[in-house]
Design brief:
The protein has 12 helices and 3 strands. It is an all-alpha fold. The chain has 3 domains: 72 residues, Multidrug-efflux Transporter Regulator, Chain: A, Domain 2 (Orthogonal Bundle); 56 residues; 90 residues, Globin-like. Strands 1-3-2 form a 3-stranded antiparallel sheet. A hairpin with a 5-residue loop joins β2 and β3.
Length: 243
């Protein structure tokens, strides 16, 4: 038997929450001593585990109580269902990560998912892959970048940001200066080498992303100094002015 304080220490569930679960008949202590101490056995801890799992998956407490009190409740089957749902959530997050990474690399400003539910995000990710998935750029992106391990991906991203930060060394210079234009050419070459063939059209789309005032602008300016993102954007526009 464990005391309520021991259960709290073991599970991280506060004593106040355990008291509340007792009040609503969701989790009763196995025994209450004459002194009023609540004690919990292994069966109670197993029930608490199911409560926490269902709660994590968004079930209301009243529904959790009804499920656990159902004589037909199969704990093994419930755990298998938990695993399936968690795998779906994992896939959903991976979809969102891949989608956001792809949109960032494509220079798209549409990164606001406010109000999107999980189904919408997954559908949007599938739509984006359907739209770009057949393009040579997306195929290259999958082969060059997504096949790398997470550490390599992180390093590639850091190197990419470091390259962008170098525009900060030319603040005050004209975007069309040979030195700044050489940096644009280096940027395009880096994307082509590490992500996909960066055409002038794709490169041009980065300009609005870099000086759009969003997170890209803030991150580039943080790395290279205030005004770095704007200079990079202006230089890209000059570099791709012929398209």
């Amino acid at each position: 038997m464990l005391t309520i304080s021991q259960v709290t220490e073991l599970t991280g569930v506060s004593q106040r929450t355990l008291h509340y679960y007792d009040e609503i008949n969701l989790l009763k202590p196995t025994q209450t001593t004459e002194a009023g101490y609540r004690l919990y056995d292994n069966a109670a801890l197993e029930r608490l585990q199911h409560v926490l799992l269902f709660k994590e998956l968004g079930f209301p407490l009243r529904d959790i109580a009804r499920l656990l009190d159902d004589p037909a409740f199969d704990r093994t089957k419930a755990l298998e269902q938990h695993l399936q749902l968690l795998q779906l959530k994992k896939q959903h997050l991976e979809n969102l990560i891949d989608l956001t990474r792809w949109l960032c690399l494509m220079g798209t400003n549409h990164l606001d998912f406010t109000g999107f539910d999980n189904k919408q995000i997954d559908e949007y990710a599938a739509q984006a892959k359907a739209t770009y998935g057949k393009t040579e750029a997306y195929k290259e992106y999958e082969q060059r970048f997504l096949t790398q391990d997470s550490a390599r991906q992180a390093q590639t991203g850091q190197d990419f940001m470091a390259l962008l930060s170098r525009f900060g060394a030319h603040l005050g210079e004209a975007p069309e200066s040979p030195e700044v234009q050489a940096l644009v050419a280096e940027l395009q070459a880096y994307i082509t080498e590490h992500f996909y063939t960066c055409t002038d059209q794709i490169l041009a789309s980065f300009a609005n992303l870099y000086d759009g005032g969003g997170s890209f602008t803030q991150n580039i300016d943080k790395a290279g100094g205030s005004g770095t993102a704007a200079l990079a954007a202006q230089a890209i526009r000059h570099y791709t002015r012929h398209i």
